[in-house]
Design goal:
By secondary structure, the chain is an alpha+beta fold. Among the domains are: about 435-580, no CATH class; about 685-790, Sandwich (Immunoglobulin-like), CATH 2.60.40.1230. The protein is built from 34 helices and 10 strands. Strand 1 (about 235) and strand 2 (about 240) form a beta hairpin. Helix 29 runs parallel beside helix 31.
Length: about 800
Amino acid sequence: MSPSVPLQEMIRAIRSARTQCEERGVIQRECAAIRAQFRQTDNGGRSHNLAKLLYVHMLGYPAHFGQMECVRMIASPRYSEKRVGYLGAMMLLDEKQDASLLITNSIKNDLSHSNQYVQSLALCTLACMGSAEMCRDLAPEIDRLLRSSNSYIKKKAALCAVHIVRKVHDLGELFVPSARSLLSEKNHGVLHGAVVLITELCERSPETLERFRKTVPDLVQIMKGLVISGYSPDHDVAGVSDPFLQVRILRLLRILGRNNEAASDAMNDLLAQVATNTDSTKTVGNAVLYETVLTVLDIKSESGLRVLAVNILGRFLLNNDRNIRYIAMTSLQKIVSTDHNAVQRHRGTIVDCLKDQDASVKRRALELSLALVSASNIRSMMKELLIFLSSCPPELRAQAASGIFNAAERYAPSKRWHIDTILHVLTTAGGDVRDETVPNLIQLITNTSELHCYTVHKLYRALLTDISQQPLVQVACWCIGEYGDLLLKGECQETEAVQVTEDDVLDALEIVLQSHMSTPTTRGFALTATMKLSTRITDNVDRIRSIVSIYGSCIDVELQQRAVEYNALFKKYDHMRAAVLERMPVIQKNSLGQTNGELSEEPMKESQPGKVKQEETALPPQPAGQVVDLLDLLGGSQEPLQPGSSVGGSASTQLTAAPTSAGGDLLDLLGGFEPTPLAPAPTVTVYEKNGVTLTLSCEQQSESGLTVTLTASNSTDSDISGFTLQAAVPKSVQLQMRAPSRDSLPAHGGAKLTQLVVLNNPNKVNLKMRIRVSYTCQGSVVQDMVQVDSFPGL
């Protein structure tokens, strides 16, 4: 191929290459010829060669050797070479390369050129790849061009000024007077550039924002002119006059009217006019309406105007375009908390979107439907959500189940309805629920004593129907173990009477124990339930003993340990079996989620000590001596047991309050025996600030041992994340901090965080504790500190 072939022939030769190797050969030969011609001093085809090199660069091949040629061509007096040189600079150069500094002077000269098209080339290049240094050097020239009488140049200069403001924030003040004067222009291109520049300036500086709030009447007049103007062939798009400028003005009005009543009042009439007069049958009109809705919802607008905006979003939900439906639900999700009643009017349309084929639309519809659930519509909404749960995609099932649980807990009309709803979810999507679902449901069941018979019958039938849903099987096994005597009586007013024999119940539990679908945790629940039935039935105790003995040699260590302990109860401590396996007491809600974890201790800085005032008083806790004699159950060990998790006892480990002695941990291993409830420890508030409250209660474990329970709650309107507590005590005191129950605090006291601190004070020094509270609220990190000088009950 000849080195002087035109660009079109080179493109044709590259495209006709049959292999990648052949294409590389063509490009390498051409690049070699271009290098040779670049080295010639008298080269009349420089623009021709650089154009070919830019095409090579577009294909992804190296073209950096043409950078200096771009610099030389920019300095050329010929427009044809200057045009290709600037194009090459925008493609081959960036602000990180030293060669870009060489064109600064050429750009400055071209900005003062008499030809507007040469000025335009310089403005486009500076706006594309200008570095911070170039922007500082050339900013006065751009400000001068903003005052030019040429509309073509002013439009380009405004967009170049936007780039300069983004690169160097301090230069924004330079363009404020010029930007304001551009609003009086009639040319739409200049107005568009001016609005973009003013928007950028207002977003960067609060002081500039206040100054431009005075321009709201001017912007309103410009917008009114666009709305009521007749047909203009230069600006009309699908029957809407210059929708691009309208959208930009609406975005600027949204910024200017945010948190300012005067500016918002000045634009209310305009927004109502745009919302009612814009054609919503075309995509262009929908774009303008969507920006109008966002502006109405973001400023301090009138209540009637906000309802109009919500109704527009409701019409978007009926649109055939899925993108429009998606952005409508995204916008409704943001305002459902502030305009709940207005959004409720479109509940039926939102629920219908749950049947959409698009996964993104389904997800948004699910989030919005869950946000619309209230006490007045809980039954109808839950019916629709349960229907959706049965057919929703697997990736949405966990989110749907979690949302249904939260809504049922907040707005349940009755305990029975609450239990039925959770059981329905477990039956439909039991494998996708969160881990805390099982203990939460068990806690709900234990607190509803009048429904124990109904619940155990319903769970027993569910267990016979399907054992693949592990959370459902775990709850069923727990209830059968606790309330098996009610199941065997067969007398239940809430449901049809079903005669169940002892053999039927044991057969069902054996199926769970032997099923390949059962997890080790589920088998632990089933084995514990089988053991508890030994005190609730009379004719099949020997069968239970044989079932338990089989698992004494199980390959699963946790299950084997449980079986060995139960065998010890049968053989050595049979006289204590009834007391150990008696029915669980009512579970307190604040004991949920207390788990043992790694210990941590971190010193803190000094702070002003604050005396803690005791708010609640109660009798000091009684010693838990009645359970200490059980410590020698498995061999008389006098060493305190280390806390740990155990299969099958997870229900009792997670659902019972923190043990009051070392014997309490062992009792968890024995299947949930609970000591006699003690008098509640006195509680004091040690921290109360910004809606966050931290309370402290103490229990004396021994002469030197003390367990401190810290409980945090959030009464604000915003969720709190990353909540951590750190504690420090005198050096002679040993401190162990257990893992917290959670790391977030929902708004309005939706849930509490609980953390145990174990103290050992062998030297009997004056006990003090310093606590540091850290959390994140609305994107801001908050840290505070409090000192506790006295402990309640000591």
